[in-house]
Amino acid sequence: MLTRAYQHSLNGSHLPAGEPLLEVDGVSLRFGGVTALSDISFTVTQGHVHAIIGPNGAGKSSMLNCISGIYHPQEGQIRLQTAAESGERTTSTLTQLPPHKIARLGVARSFQNIELFSHLTVLENLMLGRHIHMKHSVAASMLWFGPARKQEIAHRRLVEEVIDLLQLQAFRSKPVGALAYGIQKRVELGRALCIQPALLLLDEPMAGMNVEEKEDMARYVLDVHELAGVTVVLIEHDMNVVMDISDWVSVLDFGRLIADGTPDDVKTNPAVIEAYLGSDDEDSAVREALQTMQEQVEQDQIESDARG
Ligand SMILES: Nc1ncnc2c1ncn2[C@@H]1O[C@H](COP(=O)(O)OP(=O)(O)OP(=O)(O)O)[C@@H](O)[C@H]1O
Description:
InterPro entries: AAA+_ATPase, ABC_AA/LPS_Transport, ABC_transporter-like_ATP-bd, BCA_ABC_TP_C, P-loop_NTPase. By secondary structure, the chain is of the alpha/beta class.
């Protein structure tokens, strides 16, 4: 529910919270001799922030690429359940669809590396995020002529709401290439949100950020989720962020699903701790966070033994 008075709902899904939105069912993906994903099954629930975590090379990006249609798994199915405003349900199998068709069904994503038009302004980049809903060409809308004008005004209103939600007012007329990295990542989040997604896929939205930028970004992801009600699937390396903002966590290791549960379940799961501590993950912050978790688990055990 939005606290500010917005005209548009940025959440493209009309499913009630708690219902299965996306079902990953027995997905396997191979590149020649490399098995990137092996028989993966999990469910993304409407209304959740669902994190996918795992050491380097575990298969996280491959999983997101299968959901968004960039990769097509050799086995298994991925199904998206959508509901019209009338409540009528449709289940779409995404597994063999191309990315643009999956985007039209309401699955939006941001990438690990920023993929914006750096010479265009923030506003123009966000308007490009609307293009899948536009009947007239983006160029005609931007040039402000003919019947495109009415349509442009409606799209512009929605884009203004995204600018307001993500507090991008001060940057709206600036070319994206001139902005700080953290702001560019926020614009990327905004562009994905402009699709009015049923499901928002975020591939390491906080990668390369300093602590302050990470905290800001985590806040905006939570706003997108809590204020706009959008279901989010998130890949993130920073364990503290994951445990703070997620409702559900799926853990991959060497292409296998080794844990799937609430943050509390996952952080005390010995297989998860083992996977991270035994990995060659270069991200020392991840290793340190898990070391702390393991110490916490041991401490809890000692205290519980002491209590008898
Ligand atoms: N296009 C590809 N061609 C060949 N192998 C690939 C391809 N994409 C991924 N892989 C392999 O699949 C495995 C999983 O990679 P993936 O990038 O999905 O892992 P990840 O968990 O996202 O890693 P990271 O945290 O480092 O981004 C790796 O062994 C990787 O080398």
